[in-house]
Amino acid sequence: MTRSRVTDFLVTGAGGMLGRDLLAVLAALPDIKVTALARADLDVTDAGAVKEAIAGHDVVLNAAAWTDVDGAETREAEATAVNGDGVANLARASAAAGARLVHVSTDYVFGGTGFPDLSGGAGPTPYPEDAPTDPINAYGRSKLVGEQAVLAAGGFVVRTAWLYGAHGPNFVSTMLRLAGEREHLDVVDDQRGQPTWSYALAERLVALSLADAPAGVYHGTASGETTWYGLARAVFELSGLDPDRIRPTTSDKYPRPAPRPAFSVLGHARWSLAGLPPMTDWKTMLTSYLGAGRV
């Protein structure tokens, strides 16, 4: 991206966990002007309001979303209005204004079984950015509608998963809270993914928005992989707690309205096109988060 003297950013969903981290990352950069709009400030389903908000901006970082995964199972039309139609409004308005749209999506657009290992090895391999989509639930379907609109308008889609951070409820903070309430915690060990610190993702989103990179799909997750059980043990270990207080269990012990993917590991090959390395491994990222005292 060719930068003018000052780059004007619009951050939507600015009041959420990722949105607040985006604002912190942008605040530390020179020659950046930021407009921050939380949910109460901008209804993305209002096409006229979206067009007006985007006018005059160079980059739109969209962290606005319907995030109630289980609620989407019974309210799919409402979820799609935000994650699909609302994102389409952002995509059209960004294209018309000549603004770069960087939109955050999800691993739930995949079926959750992993990409076949074409080399003949055992087990699934990480989903590449161009893997066929097959949403596992209503939330995933709603997010896929948004992805398709962004890509049709020449924007950027960054899929992420298993986010944790300082500014919202998440698995890491829940484990630390429960550590003070229970002697043992039973955590599922049959779902694999890539725990990702929202601040590290925010840094990557901003870097992509300023890079000379081709539009399309990128995967914004930490490198490596683990299970929720493995993550919980790491949280305890890095916090000076006994990791053996975490006991493995299976997903069928915790039924949810929306099915969860068994395998959410994403590949990161496309970052090379943006001149950026893949994000660091999940445990190094978690160590930085806990060490920074941001819990």
TrEMBL record:
Biological pathway: Carbohydrate biosynthesis; dTDP-L-rhamnose biosynthesis
Main function: Catalyzes the reduction of dTDP-6-deoxy-L-lyxo-4-hexulose to yield dTDP-L-rhamnose.
Residue ranges of every copy of the RmlD-like substrate binding domain listed in the record: 9-290
Enzymatic class: oxidoreductase
Family, as annotated: Belongs to the dTDP-4-dehydrorhamnose reductase family.
Regions crossing the membrane: none
Official protein name in the record: dTDP-4-dehydrorhamnose reductase
Keyword NADP: yes
NCBIfam families for the chain: rmlD
Annotated InterPro entries: dTDP_dehydrorham_reduct, NAD(P)-bd_dom_sf, RmlD-like-bd
Source species, domain of life: Bacteria
A Pfam family that the UniProt record links to this protein: RmlD_sub_bind
Annotated keywords: NADP, Oxidoreductase
Species per Swiss-Prot/TrEMBL record: Phytohabitans aurantiacus
Gene giving rise to this polypeptide: rmlD
SUPFAM superfamilies in alphabetical order: NAD(P)-binding Rossmann-fold domains
EC number: 1.1.1.133
UniProt KW Lyase keyword: no
